[in-house]
Amino acid sequence: MADCLFCKIRDGEIPAKLIHQDDRALAFHDLHAQAPLHALVIPRRHIATLNDAAVEDEALIGHLARVAAEIARDAGYAESGYRTVFNVNRGGGQTVFHLHLHVLGGRALEWPPG
Ligand code: 5GP
Ligand code: ZN
Predict the structure, then answer these.
(1) CATH code, domain carrying 62
(2) Which of 36, 87, 85 is nearest to 64 (CA)?
(3) Residues with CB under 6 A from ligand 1
């Protein structure tokens, strides 16, 4: 989608530190990391928010979650713990409107989040 930051990262038009890529998803480090591990897992296909995920996207969303777990495991946080977050729309803290799953680990994560 034109003017989508994460579509541009997917297409290599904007550089990012890639962690994972496959036929459905890619993952890269967040530019403004909020924890020692802060990755973003995105679908290759542009989906604006979780609200726009259809029944047909259930397997894709599950895949994003599994990729997130793999990244956390590879970083050594499977046992100690980590957090995955979909921010949805402005009130949920979403600033980039291409679906992405945050993966945060490596520090104590408080609950509830701010
Ligand atoms: P949101 O606030 O939409 O849930 O998350 C968007 C995330 O994208 C933020 O954590 C922000 O730091 C990250 N971000 C914004 N611009 C860039 C960029 O150009 N490259 C990377 N790798 N991350 C970005
Ligand atoms: Zn996009």
Answers:
(1) 3.30.428.10
(2) 85
(3) 5, 14, 16, 28, 30-32, 40, 87, 93-96
pTM of the model: 0.98
110 occurs within a structural domain: no
Domain count, the chain: 1
Q: What is the pLDDT along the chain (114 residues), one digit of tens a residue?
A: 889 999 999 999 999 999 999 999 999 999 999 999 999 999 999 999 999 999 999 999 999 999 999 999 999 999 999 999 999 999 999 999 999 999 999 999 999 998
**Measured between alpha carbons, how far is 42 from 50 in angstroms, rounded to an integer?**
11
